[in-house]
Design brief:
577 residues, mainly beta, Immunoglobulin-like, six-stranded mixed beta sheet, 9 helices, 11% helix, 35% strand, globular, Cu-oxidase_fam, copper, oxidoreductase
């Protein structure tokens, strides 16, 4: 395992060689974690969560660009495996550390220990979460913050920093949820009971009941669900890091009477712009600048509400506490109102304003390959599934990284996935043929080729239903070239909508109802990478694909990462990774 680690470190050092102080100051940061079930009260209702070292959310990792992270992880869950995905970290040279069960590694069995080693190659706001079953929805997540390398500065100034990790919370266990989603007939799990800010929320009551007709004022609560308080000094500028690890909900964040200036998205700098509120989809992360220029005798509400779905979950509230006011002093003004859940025009105006900051590498002018992915809801043997080009993804017992590295072709289906869909498909109607099939959805990409991906949204099984889908790519950032309404045709009108001048670099992008989103990336990171809807129920029901990229160029893979399924048998027979 020393050679892969050294190679990864070398990659990071080369990446920062042009930056003063970076290579000399890079450090190894060590963490020892134990993952277990525990009783907790995220929204004042005691349930079982998955925690790390007795904490929920898990510990925050803080590092500098170029540092190497070592996480020695013991699985103390009694009856199920576990993995951790480091969301937004590109894993250059360490694809086996990406933490995606059945794709980059085997699940870590109960009572076993696995060590993740990887380099955080660029600064930004990231997070980590479980990527096995629906463990993210059970609370297995935490923040990962990467500061600029020693001696460097951000391209914007601020006096202090605040961190918000947003999530949603169900009272039903993830096991009950998974059984419901896989049942025949299908049982929808409904909307989450609560929204959480840094793992805290309040169920069936409101801190702002005085401004909410019919609401019950929250009584004294225990510290596990006590309202989050963000202490600030007047007339200062704060960097507010915000990330969403929700299972289902798309969110909107606003702070009473305060403007927010967006400066970072998914670990990439953007051209700054000011807004009253931000939409944040599952898998997104942002940095916004907040100036405390309001009446210093008051505190102000931080409000997080549901977007894109008819809200049956109350907004989450935190308090922006202007010191020296007491933290317990409730704001006099009502919390900011969340825009109407189906006001997609509001969402699009925000999303379309996100442009790359000057100095961001531009995309290649043309692509070598275009893959069009039609997102549909279908049925398979009486079950409800999500499909891509009419194939619903099912993950194998043997991780793709190991099977492809060893050349075990039998682990893939013979049929290659489709790269387009019928131009006659009516995206505004339920599928004429609602039936789908299962497959691996593995696309093999040639090394260093430029790939365009067009995500096409469509009507679900029910009439007049098309949902928001935030798609996340592992192992890469991509340029978001543009968005469109209706069916993508690839004609001159669609091409005219693409932005090749200053498209933002992201790792997560939304497709709006009945619309399409065009992405471009360079296949320059050998490995096997998941690309999927970041909504937990949708991924569980098959909404994803896999990009296998120059696997022959991957260095030596640690045996413990992929020693399961057919790979384990091959290794026992003397094959070498």
């Amino acid at each position: 395992m020393r050679l892969p680690l050294l190679a990864a470190v070398c990659c990071a050092l080369l990446a920062c060689a042009a930056r003063p102080h970076c290579a000399a100051a890079a450090k190894a940061r060590h963490f020892k974690w134990e993952i277990s079930n525990m009783f907790w009260s995220p929204d004042c209702e005691e349930k079982v969560v998955i925690g790390i070292n007795g904490q929920f959310p898990g510990p925050t990792i803080r590092a500098r660009a170029g540092d190497t992270i070592h996480v020695e992880l013991k699985n103390a869950l009694h009856t199920e495996g576990v993995v951790i995905h480091w969301h937004g970290i590109r894993q250059i040279g360490t694809p086996w550390a990406d933490g995606t069960a059945a794709i980059s590694q085997c699940a870590i069995n109960p009572e076993e220990t696995f060590t993740y080693r990887f380099v955080v190659d660029k600064p930004g706001t990231y997070f980590y979460h479980g990527h096995y079953g629906m463990q993210r929805a059970a609370g297995l997540y935490g923040s990962l913050i990467v500061d600029v390398a020693e001696g460097e500065e951000e391209p914007f100034k601020y006096d202090g920093e605040l961190n918000l990790l947003l999530s949603d919370w169900y009272h039903e266990s993830i096991h009950t949820q998974m059984v419901a989603l896989s049942s025949k007939p299908f049982r929808w799990i409904g909307e989450p009971q609560s929204l959480l800010i840094n793992g805290r929320g309040q169920f069936n009551c409101s801190m702002a009941a005085a401004h909410t007709p019919g609401a019950t004022q929250c009584a004294a609560v225990n510290r596990q669900c006590a309202p989050v308080v963000l202490p600030v000094q007047p007339n200062k500028t704060y960097r507010l890091r915000v990330a969403s690890t929700t299972s289902l909900a798309s969110l909107n964040l606003a702070i009473g009477n305060h403007k927010l200036t967006v400066v970072e998205a998914d670990g990439n700098y953007v051209d700054p712009f000011a807004v009253d509120d931000i939409d944040i989809y599952s898998g997104d992360s942002y940095s916004v600048l907040l100036t405390t220029d309001q009446d210093p005798s008051s505190n102000y509400w931080v409000s997080v509400g549901v977007r894109g779905r008819q809200p049956k979950t109350a907004p989450a509230l935190a308090v922006l506490n202007y010191r020296p006011n007491r933290a317990s002093k409730l704001p006099a003004l009502a919390p900011p109102a969340t825009p109407a859940w189906d006001d997609y025009e509001h969402s699009k105006v925000f999303t379309y304003r996100i442009r790359a900051r000057a100095g961001t590498p531009p995309p290649p002018a043309t692509a070598d390959r275009r893959i069009e992915l039609l997102n549909t809801q279908n049925r398979m043997d009486g079950h409800t599934r999500w499909s891509i080009n009419n194939v619903s993804m099912v993950l194998p017992a043997t991780p793709y990284l190991g099977s492809l590295k060893l050349g075990l072709k039998s682990t893939l289906t013979a049929a290659r996935p489709a790269e387009t869909f019928s131009r006659g498909y009516d995206v505004r109607q339920p599928p004429a043929n609602p039936n789908t099939t299962a497959g691996d959805n593995v696309y093999v990409l040639a090394h260093n080729t430029t790939v365009d991906v067009v995500l096409q949204n469509a009507n679900a099984l029910a009439h007049n239903v098309s949902e928001v889908h935030p798609w996340h790519l592992h192992g890469h950032d991509f340029w978001v070239l543009g968005y469109g309404e209706g069916a993508y045709r690839g004609d001159a009108a669609d091409e005219a909508r693409l932005n090749l001048r200053d498209p933002p670099l992201r790792n997560t992008a939304v497709i709006f109802p009945y619309g399409w989103t065009a992405l471009r990336f360079v296949a320059d990171n050998p490995g096997v990478w998941a690309f999927h809807c970041h909504i937990e129920p949708h991924l569980h029901m098959g909404m994803g694909v896999v990009f296998a990229e120059a696997v022959d160029r991957v260095g030596k893979v640690p045996k413990e990462a992929v020693s399961c399924g057919a790979t384990a048998s091959a290794l026992m027979n003397g094959d070498h990774l």
